[in-house]
Design the sequence.
Protein backbone atom coordinates (compact mmCIF):
# COMPACT_ATOMS: atom_id res chain seq x y z
CA UNK A 1 0.00 0.00 0.00
CA UNK A 2 1.14 3.51 -0.76
CA UNK A 3 0.30 5.87 2.08
CA UNK A 4 -1.06 9.32 1.26
CA UNK A 5 -2.52 12.12 3.37
CA UNK A 6 -5.26 14.59 2.56
CA UNK A 7 -4.18 18.21 2.65
CA UNK A 8 -6.45 21.17 1.95
CA UNK A 9 -3.80 23.71 1.03
CA UNK A 10 -1.71 26.37 2.70
CA UNK A 11 -4.54 28.71 3.67
CA UNK A 12 -7.21 26.15 4.31
CA UNK A 13 -5.74 23.57 6.66
CA UNK A 14 -4.55 23.49 10.26
CA UNK A 15 -2.02 20.82 9.34
CA UNK A 16 1.28 21.86 7.74
CA UNK A 17 3.44 20.03 5.23
CA UNK A 18 6.27 20.06 7.79
CA UNK A 19 4.03 18.05 10.11
CA UNK A 20 2.85 15.61 7.45
CA UNK A 21 6.49 15.01 6.56
CA UNK A 22 7.07 13.57 10.03
CA UNK A 23 4.34 10.92 9.81
CA UNK A 24 6.10 7.66 8.94
CA UNK A 25 5.65 6.37 5.44
CA UNK A 26 3.54 9.14 3.89
CA UNK A 27 4.67 9.55 0.29
CA UNK A 28 2.07 11.85 -1.25
CA UNK A 29 -0.67 14.41 -0.74
CA UNK A 30 -4.31 13.94 -1.58
CA UNK A 31 -5.28 17.32 -2.89
CA UNK A 32 -7.80 19.44 -4.77
CA UNK A 33 -8.26 23.01 -5.93
CA UNK A 34 -10.73 23.79 -3.18
CA UNK A 35 -11.41 27.29 -4.48
CA UNK A 36 -12.76 25.96 -7.77
CA UNK A 37 -16.47 25.28 -7.89
CA UNK A 38 -17.95 22.10 -9.30
CA UNK A 39 -18.15 22.44 -13.06
CA UNK A 40 -15.20 24.80 -13.48
CA UNK A 41 -12.04 23.86 -15.34
CA UNK A 42 -9.04 23.44 -13.05
CA UNK A 43 -6.42 25.73 -14.57
CA UNK A 44 -3.06 24.13 -15.23
CA UNK A 45 -1.14 26.95 -13.53
CA UNK A 46 -3.02 26.38 -10.28
CA UNK A 47 -2.50 22.64 -10.48
CA UNK A 48 1.22 23.17 -11.08
CA UNK A 49 1.41 25.41 -8.04
CA UNK A 50 0.10 22.59 -5.80
CA UNK A 51 2.65 20.28 -7.38
CA UNK A 52 5.42 22.74 -6.64
CA UNK A 53 4.38 23.03 -2.99
CA UNK A 54 4.11 19.25 -2.59
CA UNK A 55 7.40 18.49 -4.26
CA UNK A 56 9.21 20.99 -2.07
CA UNK A 57 8.55 18.47 0.71
CA UNK A 58 9.20 15.39 -1.37
CA UNK A 59 5.52 14.51 -1.80
CA UNK A 60 3.83 13.43 -5.01
CA UNK A 61 0.37 14.57 -6.09
CA UNK A 62 -0.77 11.28 -7.62
CA UNK A 63 -4.21 11.34 -5.98
CA UNK A 64 -6.80 14.03 -6.53
CA UNK A 65 -9.82 14.19 -4.21
CA UNK A 66 -12.20 15.30 -5.46
CA UNK A 67 -12.98 16.84 -8.80
CA UNK A 68 -16.61 17.43 -7.97
CA UNK A 69 -19.30 16.65 -10.49
CA UNK A 70 -21.67 19.52 -11.31
CA UNK A 71 -25.28 18.94 -10.24
CA UNK A 72 -26.52 19.40 -13.81
CA UNK A 73 -24.59 16.24 -14.75
CA UNK A 74 -26.21 14.28 -11.92
CA UNK A 75 -29.57 15.75 -12.91
CA UNK A 76 -29.04 14.90 -16.58
CA UNK A 77 -29.89 18.44 -17.76
CA UNK A 78 -28.97 19.58 -21.30
CA UNK A 79 -26.36 21.90 -19.78
CA UNK A 80 -24.46 18.82 -18.58
CA UNK A 81 -22.48 18.58 -21.82
CA UNK A 82 -20.79 21.88 -21.13
CA UNK A 83 -19.79 20.78 -17.62
CA UNK A 84 -18.61 17.40 -18.92
CA UNK A 85 -16.33 19.18 -21.40
CA UNK A 86 -14.91 21.17 -18.50
CA UNK A 87 -14.44 17.97 -16.53
CA UNK A 88 -12.48 16.45 -19.41
CA UNK A 89 -10.22 19.48 -19.48
CA UNK A 90 -9.61 19.18 -15.74
CA UNK A 91 -8.71 15.51 -16.23
CA UNK A 92 -6.16 16.53 -18.88
CA UNK A 93 -4.72 19.28 -16.69
CA UNK A 94 -4.21 17.16 -13.59
CA UNK A 95 -2.78 14.38 -15.76
CA UNK A 96 -0.33 16.86 -17.25
CA UNK A 97 0.91 17.54 -13.72
CA UNK A 98 1.41 13.83 -13.10
CA UNK A 99 -1.79 12.84 -11.26
CA UNK A 100 -2.79 9.17 -11.53
CA UNK A 101 -6.10 8.81 -9.68
CA UNK A 102 -9.15 11.06 -9.48
CA UNK A 103 -11.60 10.40 -6.68
CA UNK A 104 -15.12 11.73 -7.28
CA UNK A 105 -18.62 11.02 -6.06
CA UNK A 106 -22.10 11.00 -7.52
CA UNK A 107 -24.21 11.95 -4.52
CA UNK A 108 -27.01 14.45 -5.25
CA UNK A 109 -26.73 17.79 -3.40
CA UNK A 110 -24.92 16.60 -0.28
CA UNK A 111 -21.60 14.89 -0.01
CA UNK A 112 -21.04 13.20 3.37
CA UNK A 113 -23.75 13.95 5.92
CA UNK A 114 -23.43 14.17 9.72
CA UNK A 115 -25.58 15.75 12.44
CA UNK A 116 -22.77 16.66 14.83
CA UNK A 117 -19.23 17.50 13.84
CA UNK A 118 -17.84 17.55 17.38
CA UNK A 119 -19.77 14.91 19.30
CA UNK A 120 -18.14 14.32 22.64
CA UNK A 121 -16.98 10.78 23.45
CA UNK A 122 -16.44 9.30 26.90
CA UNK A 123 -12.71 9.93 26.82
CA UNK A 124 -13.18 13.64 26.08
CA UNK A 125 -12.29 13.43 22.41
CA UNK A 126 -14.84 14.55 19.82
CA UNK A 127 -15.79 13.02 16.49
CA UNK A 128 -18.20 13.18 13.57
CA UNK A 129 -21.59 11.75 14.48
CA UNK A 130 -24.73 10.80 12.55
CA UNK A 131 -28.04 10.65 14.36
CA UNK A 132 -30.58 8.80 12.31
CA UNK A 133 -33.79 10.13 13.88
CA UNK A 134 -32.51 13.68 13.70
CA UNK A 135 -31.87 13.51 9.95
CA UNK A 136 -35.30 12.02 9.40
CA UNK A 137 -37.04 14.90 11.15
CA UNK A 138 -34.80 17.66 9.89
CA UNK A 139 -35.16 20.33 7.25
CA UNK A 140 -32.04 20.03 5.08
CA UNK A 141 -31.50 23.78 5.39
CA UNK A 142 -31.23 23.47 9.13
CA UNK A 143 -28.54 20.83 8.72
CA UNK A 144 -26.63 23.01 6.29
CA UNK A 145 -26.71 26.02 8.60
CA UNK A 146 -25.65 23.97 11.56
CA UNK A 147 -22.87 22.19 9.68
CA UNK A 148 -21.36 25.19 7.98
CA UNK A 149 -21.52 27.41 11.07
CA UNK A 150 -19.75 24.86 13.27
CA UNK A 151 -17.15 23.72 10.83
CA UNK A 152 -14.36 26.26 11.45
CA UNK A 153 -13.22 25.77 7.83
CA UNK A 154 -15.15 25.61 4.56
CA UNK A 155 -15.71 21.96 3.96
CA UNK A 156 -15.46 19.95 0.78
CA UNK A 157 -18.91 18.95 -0.32
CA UNK A 158 -20.46 21.81 1.64
CA UNK A 159 -19.33 24.71 -0.48
CA UNK A 160 -21.44 27.79 0.31
CA UNK A 161 -22.19 28.60 -3.35
CA UNK A 162 -23.76 25.23 -3.96
CA UNK A 163 -25.75 25.25 -0.78
CA UNK A 164 -27.23 28.71 -1.22
CA UNK A 165 -29.26 27.21 -3.95
CA UNK A 166 -30.72 24.43 -1.88
CA UNK A 167 -34.39 24.94 -2.61
CA UNK A 168 -33.88 25.11 -6.34
CA UNK A 169 -31.79 21.94 -6.17
CA UNK A 170 -34.34 20.01 -4.18
CA UNK A 171 -37.01 21.05 -6.70
CA UNK A 172 -34.84 19.87 -9.55
CA UNK A 173 -34.34 16.45 -7.95
CA UNK A 174 -38.03 15.97 -7.12
CA UNK A 175 -39.24 12.73 -8.67
CA UNK A 176 -35.79 11.57 -9.69
CA UNK A 177 -35.36 7.84 -9.18
CA UNK A 178 -32.27 5.76 -8.53
CA UNK A 179 -32.56 4.43 -12.08
CA UNK A 180 -32.47 8.00 -13.44
CA UNK A 181 -29.32 8.63 -11.42
CA UNK A 182 -27.73 5.42 -12.75
CA UNK A 183 -28.48 6.58 -16.29
CA UNK A 184 -26.95 9.98 -15.69
CA UNK A 185 -23.88 8.38 -14.16
CA UNK A 186 -23.51 6.10 -17.16
CA UNK A 187 -23.80 9.03 -19.56
CA UNK A 188 -21.07 10.87 -17.64
CA UNK A 189 -18.79 7.82 -17.60
CA UNK A 190 -19.17 7.16 -21.31
CA UNK A 191 -17.88 10.66 -21.96
CA UNK A 192 -15.03 10.87 -19.51
CA UNK A 193 -13.57 7.35 -19.27
CA UNK A 194 -12.01 7.38 -22.76
CA UNK A 195 -10.28 10.67 -21.92
CA UNK A 196 -9.12 9.32 -18.58
CA UNK A 197 -7.72 6.21 -20.32
CA UNK A 198 -5.88 8.31 -22.85
CA UNK A 199 -4.21 10.23 -20.04
CA UNK A 200 -3.46 7.26 -17.74
CA UNK A 201 -5.88 8.44 -15.10
CA UNK A 202 -7.97 6.12 -12.99
CA UNK A 203 -11.39 7.46 -12.07
CA UNK A 204 -12.34 6.18 -8.61
CA UNK A 205 -15.88 6.80 -7.39
CA UNK A 206 -16.34 7.31 -3.66
CA UNK A 207 -19.28 5.44 -2.09
CA UNK A 208 -22.21 7.37 -0.71
CA UNK A 209 -21.83 8.51 2.86
CA UNK A 210 -23.96 7.37 4.59
CA UNK A 211 -24.83 4.58 2.16
CA UNK A 212 -28.58 5.23 2.05
CA UNK A 213 -30.93 7.92 0.81
CA UNK A 214 -31.01 11.13 2.86
CA UNK A 215 -33.77 13.76 2.59
CA UNK A 216 -35.48 11.71 -0.10
CA UNK A 217 -32.56 12.15 -2.54
CA UNK A 218 -31.49 9.05 -4.48
CA UNK A 219 -28.18 7.39 -3.60
CA UNK A 220 -26.75 4.47 -5.53
CA UNK A 221 -23.18 3.57 -4.49
CA UNK A 222 -24.29 1.96 -1.27
CA UNK A 223 -23.52 -1.78 -1.11
CA UNK A 224 -21.78 -4.72 -2.74
CA UNK A 225 -24.50 -5.34 -5.33
CA UNK A 226 -24.36 -1.72 -6.42
CA UNK A 227 -20.55 -1.71 -6.51
CA UNK A 228 -20.81 -4.72 -8.80
CA UNK A 229 -23.40 -2.99 -10.97
CA UNK A 230 -21.25 0.14 -11.09
CA UNK A 231 -18.11 -1.74 -12.12
CA UNK A 232 -20.04 -3.60 -14.81
CA UNK A 233 -20.83 -0.27 -16.50
CA UNK A 234 -17.41 -0.32 -18.16
CA UNK A 235 -14.37 -2.54 -18.65
CA UNK A 236 -12.05 0.35 -19.23
CA UNK A 237 -8.91 0.43 -17.05
CA UNK A 238 -9.89 3.95 -15.97
CA UNK A 239 -13.07 2.70 -14.30
CA UNK A 240 -12.69 1.98 -10.59
CA UNK A 241 -13.73 2.81 -7.05
CA UNK A 242 -12.41 4.51 -3.95
CA UNK A 243 -13.16 1.86 -1.36
CA UNK A 244 -14.14 3.82 1.75
CA UNK A 245 -14.48 1.47 4.71
CA UNK A 246 -16.17 4.07 6.89
CA UNK A 247 -18.81 5.09 4.36
CA UNK A 248 -19.88 1.59 3.40
CA UNK A 249 -19.26 0.45 6.97
CA UNK A 250 -22.08 2.63 8.31
CA UNK A 251 -24.35 -0.14 7.07
CA UNK A 252 -23.39 -3.23 9.11
CA UNK A 253 -24.69 -5.47 6.33
CA UNK A 254 -21.80 -4.41 4.13
CA UNK A 255 -18.88 -6.83 4.38
CA UNK A 256 -16.05 -4.49 3.47
CA UNK A 257 -13.22 -7.04 3.51
CA UNK A 258 -15.36 -9.27 1.29
CA UNK A 259 -15.86 -6.43 -1.20
CA UNK A 260 -12.10 -5.81 -1.23
CA UNK A 261 -11.30 -9.48 -1.82
CA UNK A 262 -13.72 -9.52 -4.72
CA UNK A 263 -12.84 -6.28 -6.46
CA UNK A 264 -9.28 -5.50 -5.38
CA UNK A 265 -7.95 -4.87 -8.87
CA UNK A 266 -10.62 -2.20 -9.40
CA UNK A 267 -9.67 -0.23 -6.27
CA UNK A 268 -6.93 2.25 -7.07
CA UNK A 269 -7.58 4.21 -3.88
CA UNK A 270 -8.64 3.13 -0.38
CA UNK A 271 -10.00 5.18 2.51
CA UNK A 272 -9.59 3.33 5.77
CA UNK A 273 -11.43 4.37 8.93
CA UNK A 274 -13.72 2.87 11.53
CA UNK A 275 -17.25 3.75 12.67
CA UNK A 276 -19.23 2.52 15.62
CA UNK A 277 -22.75 1.74 14.46
CA UNK A 278 -25.55 1.67 17.03
CA UNK A 279 -28.68 -0.48 16.80
CA UNK A 280 -30.85 2.54 15.96
CA UNK A 281 -28.73 3.37 12.91
CA UNK A 282 -26.72 6.18 14.53
CA UNK A 283 -22.98 6.01 14.01
CA UNK A 284 -19.88 7.76 15.29
CA UNK A 285 -16.39 7.82 13.83
CA UNK A 286 -13.89 6.13 16.12
CA UNK A 287 -10.20 5.28 16.26
CA UNK A 288 -9.01 2.91 13.54
CA UNK A 289 -8.72 -0.07 15.85
CA UNK A 290 -11.19 -2.90 15.12
CA UNK A 291 -12.07 -3.10 18.81
CA UNK A 292 -13.20 0.51 18.94
CA UNK A 293 -15.82 0.30 16.20
CA UNK A 294 -18.03 -1.94 14.11
CA UNK A 295 -15.72 -2.29 11.12
CA UNK A 296 -13.06 -4.98 11.16
CA UNK A 297 -10.09 -2.85 10.14
CA UNK A 298 -7.62 -5.68 10.80
CA UNK A 299 -9.40 -7.91 8.31
CA UNK A 300 -9.62 -5.07 5.80
CA UNK A 301 -5.85 -4.52 5.92
CA UNK A 302 -5.41 -8.30 5.70
CA UNK A 303 -7.55 -8.36 2.57
CA UNK A 304 -5.37 -5.69 0.94
CA UNK A 305 -2.22 -7.40 2.09
CA UNK A 306 -3.23 -10.82 0.75
CA UNK A 307 -3.19 -9.45 -2.75
CA UNK A 308 -0.05 -7.32 -2.34
CA UNK A 309 -2.13 -4.20 -2.74
CA UNK A 310 -0.14 -1.43 -4.41
CA UNK A 311 -2.89 1.20 -4.55
CA UNK A 312 -3.04 4.42 -2.56
CA UNK A 313 -4.35 4.39 0.99
CA UNK A 314 -5.31 7.23 3.28
CA UNK A 315 -6.65 7.20 6.82
CA UNK A 316 -9.72 9.24 5.78
CA UNK A 317 -11.03 10.85 8.97
CA UNK A 318 -9.89 10.94 12.54
CA UNK A 319 -11.28 12.02 15.90
CA UNK A 320 -10.30 15.38 17.40
CA UNK A 321 -7.95 14.61 20.27
CA UNK A 322 -5.45 16.37 22.53
CA UNK A 323 -7.36 19.66 22.17
CA UNK A 324 -6.49 19.95 18.51
CA UNK A 325 -8.41 22.69 16.71
CA UNK A 326 -8.84 21.52 13.17
CA UNK A 327 -11.19 20.93 10.31
CA UNK A 328 -13.82 18.32 11.31
CA UNK A 329 -12.37 14.87 10.80
CA UNK A 330 -9.09 16.18 9.45
CA UNK A 331 -6.81 16.79 12.38
CA UNK A 332 -3.20 15.72 12.44
CA UNK A 333 -3.04 13.56 15.55
CA UNK A 334 -5.69 10.92 15.11
CA UNK A 335 -5.02 10.49 11.42
CA UNK A 336 -1.34 10.01 12.21
CA UNK A 337 -2.28 7.41 14.85
CA UNK A 338 -4.46 5.77 12.22
CA UNK A 339 -1.55 5.57 9.82
CA UNK A 340 0.66 3.95 12.42
CA UNK A 341 -2.07 1.43 13.16
CA UNK A 342 -2.38 0.60 9.46
CA UNK A 343 1.39 0.21 9.11
CA UNK A 344 1.47 -1.92 12.25
CA UNK A 345 -1.08 -4.30 10.82
CA UNK A 346 0.56 -4.30 7.41
CA UNK A 347 4.02 -5.01 8.82
CA UNK A 348 2.65 -7.77 11.04
CA UNK A 349 0.98 -9.46 8.07
CA UNK A 350 4.21 -9.07 6.14
CA UNK A 351 6.15 -10.63 8.95
CA UNK A 352 3.68 -13.49 9.23
CA UNK A 353 4.05 -14.16 5.52
CA UNK A 354 7.77 -13.65 5.02
CA UNK A 355 9.02 -13.79 8.60
CA UNK A 356 11.87 -16.18 8.01
CA UNK A 357 13.20 -14.24 5.07
CA UNK A 358 13.07 -10.96 6.99
CA UNK A 359 14.92 -12.46 9.94
CA UNK A 360 17.49 -14.01 7.62
CA UNK A 361 18.23 -10.60 6.08
CA UNK A 362 19.39 -9.18 9.41
C1 LIG B 1 -15.92 10.53 3.42
C2 LIG B 1 -14.91 11.41 2.83
C3 LIG B 1 -15.57 12.31 1.77
C4 LIG B 1 -14.94 12.19 0.43
C5 LIG B 1 -15.74 12.68 -0.73
C6 LIG B 1 -15.16 12.20 -2.03
O1 LIG B 1 -15.79 9.39 3.70
O2 LIG B 1 -13.87 10.63 2.39
O3 LIG B 1 -15.48 13.64 2.19
O4 LIG B 1 -13.80 12.95 0.43
O5 LIG B 1 -17.03 12.22 -0.66
O6 LIG B 1 -15.74 12.78 -3.12
MN1 LIG C 1 -14.09 8.30 2.56
Sequence:
Amino acid sequence: MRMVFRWFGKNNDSVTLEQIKQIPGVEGLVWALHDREAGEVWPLVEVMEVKRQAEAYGFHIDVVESINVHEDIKLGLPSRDHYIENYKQSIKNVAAAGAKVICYNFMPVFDWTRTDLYKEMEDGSTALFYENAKVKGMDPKELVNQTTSNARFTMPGWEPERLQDLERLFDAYRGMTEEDLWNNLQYFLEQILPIADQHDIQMAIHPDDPPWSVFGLPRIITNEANVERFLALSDRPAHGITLCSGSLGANPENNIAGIIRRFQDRIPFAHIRNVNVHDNGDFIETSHRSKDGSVDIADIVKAYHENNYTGYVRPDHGRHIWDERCRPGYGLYDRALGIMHLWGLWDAYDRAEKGDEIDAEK
